[in-house]
Amino acid sequence: MTPGNTHVLARRRRRREGLRLSLTLIAALALVGLPLYVLVITAMKPVDEARRVTIDPPTQFAFFDNLATVLEDGTALRGFINSCIVAVPTILITLLLAACAAWVFGRSRSRKLNILYYVVITGIMLPPAIIPTVRVLQTLGLDGNHVGLIFFYCGTQLGAAVFLITGFVKGVPYELEEAARLDGAGPLRVFWSVILPSLRPAVLVSGVYLTLTVWNDFFYAYFVLSTPAQRTMPLGLYGYASANLFQYNWGLVFSYVLLTSVPIVIVFLLAQKRIVSGLLGGAGK
Q1: What beta strand segments (E) does 107-239 contain?
Q2: Do 21 and 120 belong together in one domain?
């Protein structure tokens, strides 16, 4: 192949890559950018302008007034506290149990434990049956409160966390455990001092996944939490949007949506680099 042909092929390849990148950006702007733009500018509009959802920028900046109204009337602060009460214990308990189970599954060569591992991760594919779950929680006296919802989330999300962490356990050198045991460390000390620090990327990825899942959940929280005072932010958003639907206060509703989304965006921005490195590390192992 002559140098001229090589140059032509390289130029065509660059054109195809540029076209592919342009199409990707256009699709991202159409699917994500435009709805996000409408959401933000509508949240900035006063009530009269926000009655119709358009792409026109606001003539008056009323974003902080809308936020103040939502915080006063929409019980957003109470919903935020309730979401934290549910999400934080769920994430901590699930990650701890998943790391322990993944350590056992990752090191085991037993066929019985391998079968148990596949039973545990079937929760990823099989959604929980909500009616039997509610009946069980009612029998245990945990229906309608945060404790029951925390146990429910831990049980349903444990399989996904175990699946994500087990691959990383197999990449931790077994010699590290042997050295710790020779120094007199017991199983708990080995797990806490050797295994858990080595699993930080996997635990972080699993924690972000759990945060997104638990914080944004509406369906299961709707059936488990029956008391309005214990509603999480998605449930509070649903109630607030329903109350303002026929008044067409889209500026207030979209402001509530932004408040609900801010914690998730902050978590993602803080952890995005570690998420990518953790996923790549897991793929390599």
Answers
A1: none
A2: no
pTM of the model: 0.81
Question: Quick one: 198 exposed, middle or buried, by C-beta within 10 A (0-12, 13-18, 19+)?
Answer: middle
| Dist. CA 35–CA 71, nearest whole Å | 24
Lowest mean pLDDT among 47-51, 211-215, 280-284: 280-284
From CA 255, how far away is CA 236, in angstroms rounded?
13
Of 263, 102, 247, the C-alpha closest to 167 is 102
Domain end: 32, 63, 94, which one?
Answer: 63
The residues, ordered by sequence, that sit 6+ positions from 272 with a Cβ below 8 Å of its Cβ are none
Report how far residue 43's alpha carbon sits from residue 38's, in angstroms, rounded to the nearest whole number: 8
Q: Which of 66-75, 139-148, 167-176 has the highest mean pLDDT?
A: 139-148
pLDDT at 278 over 80: no
Query: Cβ–Cβ contacts within 10 Å for residue 209, how many?
Result: 16
On whether both 129 and 243 belong to a single domain, the answer is yes
Asked if 130 and 216 touch (Cβ cutoff 8 Å), the reply is no
- The reply to whether 88 and 180 lie within a common domain is yes
37-72 per-position pLDDT tens digit: 888 898 888 888 888 878 888 888 888 888 888 887
Task: Decide if pLDDT at 282 tops 50.
Answer: no
Q: 133 is written with which tokens? A: 């779950």
